[in-house]
Structures are given as structure tokens and as C-alpha cells.
Amino acid sequence: MAMKKLINDPANLVPELLEGFALANAGKVALQGSNLVVRTSPKSKDKVALVTLGGSGHEPALSGFVGEGMLDISVPGEIFAAPGPPRVIEALRLANREAGVLLIVLNHAGDIMSAKIAMDMAKKEGLNVKQVLTHEDISSGSRENPDDRRGLVGCLAVIKAAGAAAEQGHSLDECLAIAERMERNMATLAVAVSGATHPCTGDVIAEIPEDVMVVGMGQHGEAGGGTQSLKTADETADIMLPVLLEDIQAKPGDELLVMLNGVGSTTLMELYLVLRRIKQILEGKGITLARSLVGEYLTVQEMGGFQMCVARLDEELKALWDAPSNAPALTVK
Amino acid sequence: MAMKKLINDPANLVPELLEGFALANAGKVALQGSNLVVRTSPKSKDKVALVTLGGSGHEPALSGFVGEGMLDISVPGEIFAAPGPPRVIEALRLANREAGVLLIVLNHAGDIMSAKIAMDMAKKEGLNVKQVLTHEDISSGSRENPDDRRGLVGCLAVIKAAGAAAEQGHSLDECLAIAERMERNMATLAVAVSGATHPCTGDVIAEIPEDVMVVGMGQHGEAGGGTQSLKTADETADIMLPVLLEDIQAKPGDELLVMLNGVGSTTLMELYLVLRRIKQILEGKGITLARSLVGEYLTVQEMGGFQMCVARLDEELKALWDAPSNAPALTVK
Amino acid sequence: MPETIDCNTMTRMLRGAAAEIREQHEMLSRLDSVGGDGDHGTTMLRAMANLEKAIDASAAPGLKPLLYDVGWAILGVDGGATGPLLGTLFMSMSEALEGKDAPNPAEMAAAFEAGLAGVQAQTKAQVGDKTMIDALVPAVAALRTSVNGGSDIVDALRRAAEAAEQGAAATRELQARFGRARNIKEKSIGTQDPGATSVSLMFKGFWKGAETHA
Amino acid sequence: MPETIDCNTMTRMLRGAAAEIREQHEMLSRLDSVGGDGDHGTTMLRAMANLEKAIDASAAPGLKPLLYDVGWAILGVDGGATGPLLGTLFMSMSEALEGKDAPNPAEMAAAFEAGLAGVQAQTKAQVGDKTMIDALVPAVAALRTSVNGGSDIVDALRRAAEAAEQGAAATRELQARFGRARNIKEKSIGTQDPGATSVSLMFKGFWKGAETHA
Ligand SMILES: Nc1ncnc2c1ncn2[C@@H]1O[C@H](COP(=O)(O)OP(=O)(O)O)[C@@H](O)[C@H]1O
Ligand SMILES: Nc1ncnc2c1ncn2[C@@H]1O[C@H](COP(=O)(O)OP(=O)(O)O)[C@@H](O)[C@H]1O
Ligand SMILES: [Mg+2]
Ligand SMILES: [Mg+2]
Ligand SMILES: [Mg+2]
Ligand SMILES: [Mg+2]
Going by fewer Cβ within 10 Å, which terminus of chain B is more open, N or C? Predict the structure, then answer.
């Protein structure tokens, strides 16, 4: 099947989609400078600012997380491509304040390189910036080799917790510690059932044979794991959840956040079935499904499949998760 | 391509998905009686209650609209099939109160029949229930033959306005008048670019050839309109918006709500491009894009395409649109 | 052949209808997939399952409560247009049997007429609009004519079934003006209406059921 | 052949690199689509467009600001791994040319060494890890050896280009340990690394560009 997308000139895709995104969320977000996504009502300067960067084509991520209680600025790159360091340093300068800036970086080669160069420059310029790296994809590396682990939808929980902490007036070091704790507490695994097309090139991103699913596929279709026959919703949860629980060493009595992130064409209907099974499994282990989030947050165009992210919550993280947010992709009252 | 869905036994699909939906939104909604979706914190009895009914498989619709500021109860049917009258009357009895109940019915054969039988029974039982029918799909009938017009995503705006009015203490007749005004003010047109599969039967719902799009296709793949070659985002907006504006007789100075409802696999990215173009066209006509909503609200499984709904707002409708809601599918602070 | 219809006969008739539908449900879905959403067979299967469950569970003896329970059970099917219309058929028949525990053939014909009237209160569809009405109207008319002409109930049901089948067959040449199939306009011509086909199968089942009992 | 490299020569070299990439961008994307995301050719095209724009716009005369502007412009490409690494190459070269408006071949070799060091500060990838490092390291080494052996700049760049090409070719047999392609593990063996191929093309362009000017 050829690509069937309603787009205009691929060369203008990202600026056009950002223009539409800002329109759709007028009153919440706006574009500033070289297409940085900022809040329309900025956070007061005595509070820590949160900045992130990442490729486009994953809407609503990451710019959909800009808002009160979450991000101050997102730096959207080209489709599936990290923004270059000049726009990242531009964002850091814009966010700069005495209270400091926390840069959230998803572990993908381009993102960490852009972040590193921008961080080096920021340090030279005397900006008060610290960085947290999210790398919770258990399919691409072990806990002992965190550098190998990609950053998937877990960034949302990190941004939510640190964003709420910043809003409450926590210091940069406190926000960083909260972000790092949430990051350490979480693990993600993805399953893909059908591929997608690159909106600019028309290339097939992941070719997945009929009746097959792939557990552990990355955000851009990079293969990373087990090709197996398509399973039921329950069986899929039975395969994915235990390895995630093992990774975070979940124990009876633990309280978990579970996020099910649809990556494109997989329906909410299916994700609800999976969540239902997760609750059954957790109950069997004496673990509490304390919070859940089901929806499309970090997509890969029209790919079929989802990311399952589990995170151990403590009282503080739970309260931060529950804190208000007006980000377009996650409004919490 | 065969169906690739993560489901269990199709016979249990709807109860399972409702269980997962309630879990995912624990604290907001719960299941009651014969799988009616209700709020966990019910509206006070002196305010008008809102009830709707409709087939499942369109998640988050319609149960995702249950919440403070929107619906009190939704009666979910089987996949793409209206619930029978017994559960509808069960919901009306449950919602019944002196202030009255407003039943919102989308114009589809099964839904209106179930609603009619339940309304007849309600009247016999002396319940204080009134009904509003949404039928804003301009592809299936003219404004003079509103019976022929199907109800598409516009129901969301009707529920939002009437739900906010009910929350503010308006009477049943006032809520009905507001619902009917919003309904009269709006028009919807759908475009489909790729088909979907029925999750129970595996049947293809709409077979759309490569490089083709269909303007005016119904919610279940019923053909209804113009098959034409696939267009750009801008061209698609150029085709769809003018006929909608003509239908509601939009004039310079009007203030519009525009909803772009992705029906499954079409990305937010694409919808943002379309919104961008809509804004340009409206500006050219001196019409204001006063409010917009872009996302997946009433889906058709993994179908590709979207519904464009425009509605003329007056000051009261604007305020009701902006009023708070905690419904899972539309949180407004 | 008894002069009156009792619960046993009605139960056989209803089970007969369920048996016919069960045998043909795939064909019914196929017909529905042309202009509709392809679920008619599945919906009818569920309707018939509910019907049989209602028969089995029906505590109150008597035709009126039996038909009420059956009608309510079919209304309970989440099935788009079918559940409400067929459920109403039986509910309205039940109402018409007030005080008639053992109706004679004429009273039975009157009950079917009341059932049809109930359905027609739910839909504006007329004969010729390519819906189940195209089978139901001639079936009920034939039942009345036969009964008035002195037929016993089995014979009258046979004639009703034949009329329903002809009515259903005639829908092939029609353009749908109600239901989902109306959306495909003239493309609906050439395919028999699934709902009319179901009604025809059900009347065949009523007849066969009554016959085996006789 | 002049003894020093001026802005004109460098401009030719840079434009030469852009020309080579432009000719081969489809092949680069094809290579990237095996283990990566298939965008390397597009990214390199954008990088080279930015490079040429920077040359055209570069107001300040002098090698150091020219290379700074080029590096900054390439950093500005939203291109995953490529932009930061290649941008850093030129930025670091620029830094090394402080006070050297007309570097001699040895100073030029030192600038390339500084560029390589800058890149290596951004990535832990070593020769053998199947990345652009596999072309960059031998190219810079060959440049140094040739210059030390008395080659002029054109000849030294030719040897550097040859070394880069060999380094890139050798990546075919390697398993990727960095970048997206590392995820496909042993399946990356058998395909030449796209980034290394780009570096090899750019050195070929440096050489050809310097040569046409000579
Ligand atoms: N408005 C109507 N009036 C009478 N019969 C109708 C009407 N709408 C649909 N039908 C009948 O129902 C049949 C389709 O039934 P079914 O497929 O079960 O319902 P749905 O169309 O809701 O999926 C049609 O073939 C037609 O006979
Ligand atoms: N960590 C790294 N260190 C060195 N080179 C790298 C690294 N990651 C990627 N590369 C190089 O970049 C090339 C891919 O570039 P490109 O496709 O433009 O970026 P991306 O992989 O982000 O899409 C690889 O072939 C490799 O040569
Ligand atoms: Mg989607
Ligand atoms: Mg979707
Ligand atoms: Mg049907
Ligand atoms: Mg790439």
C-alpha cells in the first residue's frame, strides 16, 4: 500500500504542522524564535524551567507536553530527526533563569549529541542547566548498560513529575533528583504489529509480515526484539508485563503507574483490553495498579502497536503525577 | 492485509473493553447495572442529567464523554451496533430526576429506534425525559431533509454545550434549546483515505483503492459521497470547508468552532496541516476561527481519514464550550 | 390439528424460526455487507439466542407473557435496526393477546396484525422501500386472508411464509430507501434485502415449527 | 599550487564535498534504510545546502570564521547523528585555525586533527565500530602522513580521500556498535555504513575541489 497521507510539500511539513499545532492549542502554546514551542503564559522566573528536544512525526509528543505543570519549551526537530544544537542552545538561553533549567533528553543518538553540544555551550556561557537522560526501553539494553536503552514514552512520566515539582517551587537539584528517581523506577517495552511510512520519503518504516508481531521495536521501526506470531491482547500482556516487572524488580505491595501508549493505528479499544489484563496480573502478584494512562502520547505515524511503560511510584511521585497540568496532550485538573 | 488487532474472544470484546476503559479512568467513570457508564461522582439531583447511547468500536466515543460538564450516563452498544431499548430505559430510569433528563441521540437507524422505544416507555412511566437528535452529516442529506443526515462527531459539541448548561443549573427546556441551537448551527463532512476491519468479524469495513479518497463516507464505512484522487492537506481543506460553510451559511464576522476528528490512523500531524489551511481560508472570508479541537474523539477502528465539523458560536455557546469538563476524552480546566 | 394456539405451539414456532436463521446466518451477513455493515447475520443469531433463552427462562405460562419475554429479549440485542423492530413485533403481539390465553386462528392473525402495526409505529418504511416491511406486510396479509378463508393455522402460516419469501425476493429489484443500504443508492439494486430475508426465514420457521407440532 | 590554503581553496573544497554528496544522496539513504531510518541521504543533502548557504552568506573573510559558519550551519540541520558530528568537525577545525589566516599544509593537517578530536569528544565510537569514524580516522591520518612526507595539499587530500574510501568500504564487513544500526546487530554486516560513506564522499570532494582550483 502506497503512502496515503494528507500532507502538502514534504519540505514544509514540520513548520506547517507546528503552525497548526499552535493554532489548535492557541491560548496554551505558541511558537517563538526558530520554531520553539513555548507556553503562552510563562512560568514565573523564580521557578525551574523544563526544556526538551526531539524529532517531529511523533505527535502529540513532545511539544504536546508543553504547558503549566509540564514543559516550558520544546525544541521540535525534523521528522524523526533531532533538532540541531543551535536551536537547543537558543531554547536554553530563552529558558535561562537563576532557578535553573532542566533539560530532558531521550536517549537517541542525535538527541544526546545535540544536547551535549548545547550543554557544553551553555556551560561556557554560564547558564545554570542540568540534564536528565531517559532510557527505559528494556529491549535495547540491560539495566547495567543504560546507555544502550532508548528513551520511549517514559519521558512523559519524567516530565510530568519534574514539571510538577518545578511548578511547586522545588530547586533545580530537587527537580533533577525527582526526574532521575522516576527514570530509575521505570521500564518500557514496545510491541509493533504493523508498519508505517515516512511522511517525507514515503519509505516504509517497518515491514511487519502478516500474522506477526515484534516485541521490542524502537520508535522509528528499528528492530530490536522478538518476532513472533500475533497474539491475543491477554497473551501480549502476559509476555510483556512480567519482563517489565522484573526489570524494575517490582515486589508485592508496590504501587505502579502503567502507561499504555498507542503508537498510531492501534485503537483505544485494544489498549483497554491490555490494561484489563495487566490489572489481573498485578492483582495476582499483590501489586497495586495505582495510576494508569492509556492513549496516544508518543506516536510513530500510522504504525500499529503500543508501548507499555511501568513505573514504581512513591508518595511524592504519586502526588506529582496527580498534580495539575494544562499541556495539550495531558490535561490534569 | 488481514486484521491485526490485539483482542481476545470477540464475543467478550465490549465488556472487556469497558472494564479496561473504567480502569483507565478510575476515579472518573465506573460501570453500573448492565454495563452503563456512569460518573463516579454523580451530578446533584437538582440538575438536568444527560444520557446518550451508541455502538462501541468508536473509542473514546461515546463513553469517553461521560464526566462533569458533559454526560451523566452513556449506554454503549455492541461493536458498531446500537444498544437495545432495555438498557436505554435502564439508563433513563437511573438518571431520572425532577429536573429532567436530556437524551442525546445520533441519527443512525438503530440508535433512533432504540431511543424511540425507550422514550415511549419513559413517557408511559412518567419520566421527565426529552430528546435531541444530532444529524449534521451534510453528505447524507440536505438541510431540508434532516432525517437523512447522520450524526457524526458533532454530537461532542452538543453534549459539551448542553452538559455545561446542565451543570450551571439550566432547566431541561433550556438545555434542550441549547443543544438544538448548537445542532442547527453545525455541519460535518468526513473524508476517508483507508479502510478498517471489523474487530469481531474481520470484515473489511471500507475498501478504498490506492491513491483514492472518499469524501462523505459514514462512520461505518458506508459510502456516501465523492470518490476522488488523493489530495494534499490544503486541497482537501479547500474541498471540504466551503461546502460546510455554505451549509451553515457562514458570513463574515461569524465566529466558528472547528473540530477535526481523526477516525483512526490519520495522524495529528495531518490534522494540524488541515487546521492551518482552514484558518487561512476563514481569514480570507472574514470569518473567525474562534475555537478548535483536533484529535481522535469518535473513531472507526484503524480507518484513515477525518471528520471536519464546523459550528457557528454565539456568546453563550462559546462560554459553554469553554466551561470545565473532566470527561476522559475532553478535559477542560 | 387443534383449533387454538397454545404455548407449546408458539414455542415450536419460535424455535422453528431460530433454526432457520441459524442455518442461514452467513448468507444474511453476506447480503448485509453489500449495502450495510455486514452484521445482520450475527445480529439475528444473537436475537435468536436471546429468543431461545427467553423461552427457556419464561416462568409465567401463557402466550402473552411468553411473547412479551421474547420481545423484550430481542429488544435487548445490541443490533442496530433489527433488535428494536423484531422485538417490537413480539411485544405488540403480546399486548394484543390480552385476555386470550388460547387464541383461535383469527385471533392469532389479529395478533400478527398488531405486531405489524407496532413495527410500523417504529419506522416510516413502506412496502417497496426494500426493508423487512417488504416481507412482513405480505406475510401478515396472507395469514389474514387464509384464516378468513378457513385455513387452519399450519396452512395459514405456510401461505404467510410463501408470501414473505416472495416479498423478500422482490426486494432484489428495489432501491433501498431505509437503513444503512440507502446510502449506496442505486447500487443497492440487485441484492436481496437482508432484513426482509430474515423475516421470510422466520415465517418459514413459524410454519415448520407449527407443522411438526401438529 | 600555492603553499598555503586560502578562503578560495577552502570554498572549492567545501563545494566539492557538497557536489559529491548531492550526486550520491539516494545511495546514502538506501544504505541507511538497511539498519537505520533511511534518512541519511536527505540529511546530508540538507547539511550540504546549509553548508553552501553559509559559504554564500559568510561575511567575515578568513578561514576561521568561514569554517565556524559552515560548522554552525551544519549543526543547524535537524539530522540525528550527522549534523552534530559533521558540524563539530568544522567547528573544531575553525577553533584550531586561531591566528592562522593562511595555514600551510601541516597546519591544515593539524586543523583536521583538531576536527577529528572534536568529533571524538562527541562520540565514543572507535575505528571498527562501523560509523563515520571508520572513514574519518584513516583520512586524517593519511593527510598527516602525506603532509609530513612533503605532499602538497592536493596530493595529501587525494591520499586522504583514498584512505577514507578504503575505510568506508571496510565497514561493510563490520557489525554496527553505534547509531541506529546497532539495533539490528549482526544483520548490519554486509552493508556499508552510510555515515562513513558520506565522509569518504566529502573527502573526495575536498580533493576534487582543491584540484580544480589548483
Ligand atoms: N428504518 C428501517 N425500517 C425498516 N427496516 C429497516 C430499517 N432500517 C433497517 N431495516 C432493516 O434492517 C436490516 C438491516 O439489519 P441489521 O444489519 O441487523 O441492522 P443495521 O443496519 O443497524 O446493521 C435491513 O436489511 C432492513 O431490512
Ligand atoms: N554515535 C555515533 N558515533 C559516530 N557516528 C555515528 C553515531 N551514530 C550514528 N553515526 C553515524 O551516522 C550515520 C547515520 O546518520 P543519519 O542517518 O544521518 O542519522 P540518524 O541515524 O540519526 O538518522 C551512521 O551511518 C554512522 O556513521
Ligand atoms: Mg492515531
Ligand atoms: Mg488511533
Ligand atoms: Mg447491518
Ligand atoms: Mg538515519
Answer: N
Q: Give the domain CATH number at D126.
A: 1.25.40.340
Strands B49-56 and B101-106: parallel
* Beta-carbon pairs below 8 A across chains A and D: 93
Superfamily of domain B186-321, CATH level 4 = Dihydroxyacetone kinase; domain 2 (3.30.1180.20)
Instruction: Give the count of beta carbons closer than 10 Å to the beta carbon of residue C40.
Output: 28
Residue D173's pLDDT band (cuts 50, 70, 90): very high
Our count of domains for chain C comes to 1
ipTM for the complex shown: 0.90
Domain A10-184, CATH 3.40.50.10440 — does that match?
A: yes
pLDDT at site C213: 57
Instruction: Provide the residue type at D105 as one letter.
Output: P
Do the Cβ atoms of A325 and A28 come closer than 8 Å?
Answer: no
Under an 8 A CB cutoff, do C83 and B84 touch? yes
Q: Whose CA is nearest to atom 24 of ligand 2?
A: D195
Chains in touch with D (3+ beta-carbon pairs under 8 Å) read A
Q: How far is the CA of B265 from the centre of ligand 4 (A)?
A: 5
Give domain status of residue D1, yes or no: no
Task: List the single residue in D36, D74, D122 with the smallest CB-CB distance to A113.
Answer: D122
Count of other CB atoms within 10 angstroms of residue D127:
17
Segment D179-195 shows an average pLDDT of 89
Per-residue model confidence as pLDDT tens digits over A170-226 = 999 999 999 999 999 999 999 999 999 999 888 888 889 889 999 987 666 655 558
Query: Is C129 close to ligand 1, i.e. is its CB under 6 Å away?
Result: no
Selecting among B108, B135, B170, B220, the annotated active-site residue is B220
Residue B69 has pLDDT above 60, yes or no: yes
Per-residue pLDDT, D184: 82
Residue C21, domain extent:
7-213
Indicate the helix (H) or strand (E) that contains D10.
Answer: helix D7-35
Q: Who lines ligand 2 at CB under 6 A?
A: A 109-110; D 32, 36-37, 39-40, 43, 79-82, 85, 123, 125, 131-133, 178-180, 193-196
For residue D2, is it within any domain? no
pLDDT band at D36 (very low <50, low <70, confident <90, very high): confident
Report in angstroms the alpha-carbon separations of D187 from A56, A209, A224, A328. Answer: 28, 18, 11, 40
Q: In the prediction, which pLDDT does C179 show?
A: 83
Q: What positions of A carry a catalytic annotation?
A: 58, 220
Closest CA to A97 of A51, A46, A131, A53: A46
What are the structural domain ranges in chain A?
10-184, 186-321
Q: pLDDT at residue A140 above 70?
A: yes
